[in-house]
Amino acid sequence: MKVPTSDPQHGFPLSREVVSGNAGKDGKVQKLLILLGLILLAIGLAWPWLRRLPLGRLPGDIHIVREGFSFSFPIVSCLIVSVVLSLILWFFRR
Fold first, then answer.
1. Whole-model pTM above 0.90?
2. Helices (DSSP H) in the chain: which residue ranges?
3. Above 80 in pLDDT, residue 48?
4. 55: nearest Cα among 75, 85, 83
5. Are 76 and 58 a contacting pair, CB within 8 Å?
6. How far apart are CA 31 and CA 15, in angstroms?
7. Cα 77 to Cα 2, 55, 56, 67, distances in angstroms
8. What 8-state DSSP symbol labels residue 63?
9. b or e along 15-41 (b: 16 or more beta carbons within 10 Å of the residue's beta carbon)?
10. Which residues does 14 contact at the CB level (< 8 Å), separation at least 6?
11. Burial of 94 (0-12, 13-18, 19+ CB in 10 A)
């Protein structure tokens, strides 16, 4: 069986990994998906405690409630989550 060296739909050359059949065999994508699944599982299991945090109800978060309409923009909560995640990622990349 002849292995195609270009994408028949778009006409551009395929990468060596696709032609040789090694695309994704190093396991990086699989490990990333497993890690994301474990993170989502941990968040789901910890949700009863996480929802008690005052995120979304901090001073500086914007809440507008009118008849038949409500708008919420938790700007301070977003800033705090961003800083915490940035610190965690910085710590793990060191």
1. no
2. 16-20, 28-50, 75-93
3. yes
4. 75
5. yes
6. 22
7. 56, 5, 6, 25
8. E
9. eeeeeeeeeeeeeeeeeeeeeeeeeee
10. 4, 5, 6, 7
11. exposed
What average pLDDT does the structure give for the chain? 84
- Cross-strand partners of 64: 71
| Residue 19 pLDDT exceeds 60 | no
- Using the structure block, give the residue that is written with the tokens 């990333």: 32
Report residue 7 as tokens: 């994408």
Cα 53 to the center of its chain, rounded Å: 21
Q: How far apart are CA 87 and CA 94, in angstroms?
A: 11
For range 1-16, the mean pLDDT:
63
Those residues whose C-beta lies under 8 Å from the C-beta of residue 81, and which sit 6 or more positions away, are: 55
pLDDT for residue 26 is more than 70: yes
| pLDDT value of residue 84 | 94
